[in-house]
Amino acid sequence: MQPFSIPERPLSRPPTLGGLIMLVGFVLIGGVISTLLLFGLLMVVKGIGPTQAQAYLTELAANPQAVPTGWYELMFLQAVNHLGTFLLPSLGYWYLTERRTWDQFNARPISAVAGIGLVSLIVIAFMPFDGLIIEWNQGLHLPQTLAPLEQWIRDKEKNLEGVTKYLTTFKTPLQLTIAMLVIAVIPAIGEETLFRGILQRNLSYWTGNVHVGVWLAAALFSAIHVQFLGFFPRMLLGALFGYLYVSSGNLWVPILAHFVNNGFTVAMVYLFQRKMVPVDIESTESVPVLGALVSGVVTLGFLYYFRQANKQ
User: How many CB atoms lie within 10 A of CB 65?
Assistant: First the structure.
């Protein structure tokens, strides 16, 4: 497998260490600006001061059920924060620092990608295997000397689980539509642009090894979510998106895969809550080992076929 390449243009700049520092700066500045924007909007809409706005956001994040419109407000916060932290800084870096265009994310047009319909099957086939890795990861323990740190991590993730459960409890089709936009569409575009379009491509360029680029970007993708108990399954998912990008040569392919992964989960949760399907995709029941292994083999088979179909 050759190092990842993209079309060059006369004004384009190669990725450099200084550029990487600028990318981190864009992400940090984007996070700060989006937070300030949310503060400003909150103060204007609610007619409150900065201190009250901070207290309101803290209460909203910790106990959204106590706010009548908490679900919608949390979704809006997530959407603005995600756009400000991932997508806009990535595009700022890409267009201003490397002086490239969106087309330069793609080594080939989407119309030339073979087996695009297979992408959804690959992602769904991977889920049972990843479920087994989730179960294994959740059973990992830090050394005894770090037991207080592990307890803190588990308490934080328990709290986060409660917020996630609240946000994925849908009472109306409108909430399902908003959730699809905020949980599936925006993260798919923003995170894939940053982690696969820029970081994976730059890491592959610097190391001269596409596999190193894929796995380092996948590790960063997982680490940014700050969930120790889900680190390894999310890293595997990131690597899956990375190899789909390498095989297809088009960024819309991992974006589609990311959307299917998140969107399929949201849709299944909604259908289960409506008693339209018997499977609770959020269930923590053990994944049968044999079923998970079959899932892994099928996923590898689909990936191999997809790669072969997209060879020159």
Answer: 11
Torsion sign across C-alpha atoms 159, 161, 163, 169: negative
Helix (H, G, I), strand (E, B) or coil at 96: helix
Two tokens at 94? 């890409």
pLDDT tens-digit readout, 199-218 = 999 999 999 999 999 999 99
Q: Phi and psi of 282, rounded to 5°?
A: -90, 0
Spell out the alpha helix ranges (H) of the chain: 17-46, 50-62, 70-82, 88-92, 118-138, 147-167, 173-179, 186-192, 201-207, 210-223, 231-248, 252-273, 289-309
CA distances from 121 to 29, 208, 306 (A): 38, 31, 11
**Looking at this protein, which amino acid is placed at residue 22?**
M
Question: Is residue 225 a contact partner of residue 234, using CB atoms and an 8 Å limit?
Answer: yes
Q: How far apart are CA 200 and CA 202, in angstroms?
A: 6
Look up residue 301 and give its amino acid: G
Cα–Cα distance list, 119 to 164, 165, 246, 288 (Å): 26, 28, 13, 24
Task: Record the tokens describing residue 108, joined without a space.
Answer: 């080939």
181-200 pLDDT per residue, tens: 999 999 999 999 999 999 99
Name, in order, each residue with C-beta under 8 angstroms of 90's C-beta and a sequence gap of 6 or more: 23, 26, 27, 190, 193, 194, 197, 198
Single-letter code of the amino acid located at 56:
Y
Nearest-angstrom CA–CA distance, 38 and 270: 29
Residue 117 has pLDDT above 50, yes or no: yes
